[in-house]
């Protein structure tokens, strides 16, 4: 749609919002205006009843090459801390619909962190991840150190954070950071992500939402509380029509028709 300058929001299917970061000249550097538009597009997808899943992507060359260095290079401490510089990035992690990152090319610094904020990461073989902030005299600020440590372990996270070296799609897959490296070819990773999004959208929305909530709880709660939270949410789904329909359809050997109620 034409309402944005730094992103493109579209619906390749009525049940999917596809958000494409679109600052090609800056390798999709995540400026404040870009992030505000991203937050608006996410909020619009969140309230669109038709939409069951969101896909976030960049270009073939860059998912995003990080926070916008030119925008932040001169800011002072009292502005950064005082005005919670880039604090609005956290809004993405409040979205309750699943978000799939389809990553090609550079995903560096804030770009890598943006992918890590998403629920599922699909990578093209060209994807190049990294937390190069150390080269700029800073450290990750958008969750990189925490989400990477929880995902790929301490030693690797420490190495990457302290050296700033980039890592490949294959390494990211081996370490469990991306769920899959998809085939080569232009647009392949987005196509794959859209197919996955369609599948997720065809499921009962309440169950999908609950599934996202419980998996995310694993990153925040101690095991005992996480298990209790999962069980309670599982039990609560017996109050939904989709549970009745899903299980009846299985017993009657037919496909379920979910009403998302
Ligand atoms: N910010 C601003 N502009 C950028 C950025 C960026 N992060 N990355 C690339 N660009 C611009 C370049 O300045 C250049 O612009 P111009 O043509 O006007 O000179 C254009 O994009 C093309 O870039 P290059 O010519 O450098 O392209 P190359 O193919 O030679 O190199 C690289 C590609 C290797 C990706 C290189 O551009 C690079 O190293 N970029 C910077 C990567 C980086 O350091 N990222 C980390 C940024 S710090 C960060 O993300 C902190 C996040 C904190 C989040 C806090 C949340 C709360």
From TrEMBL:
InterPro entries associated with the record: ClpP/crotonase-like_dom_sf, Enoyl-CoA_hyd/isom_CS, Enoyl-CoA_hydra/iso, Enoyl-CoA_hydra_C
Annotated Gene Ontology cellular component terms: mitochondrion
GO biological process, one term: fatty acid beta-oxidation
Record GO terms (molecular function): enoyl-CoA hydratase activity
rRNA-binding listed as a keyword: no
SUPFAM superfamilies: ClpP/crotonase
Pfam families: ECH_1 (PF00378)
Recorded family membership: Belongs to the enoyl-CoA hydratase/isomerase family.
PANTHER family in the cross-refs: ENOYL-COA HYDRATASE, MITOCHONDRIAL (PTHR11941:SF54), ENOYL-COA HYDRATASE-RELATED (PTHR11941)
Protein name listed in UniProt: Probable enoyl-CoA hydratase, mitochondrial
Organism name: Sistotremastrum niveocremeum HHB9708
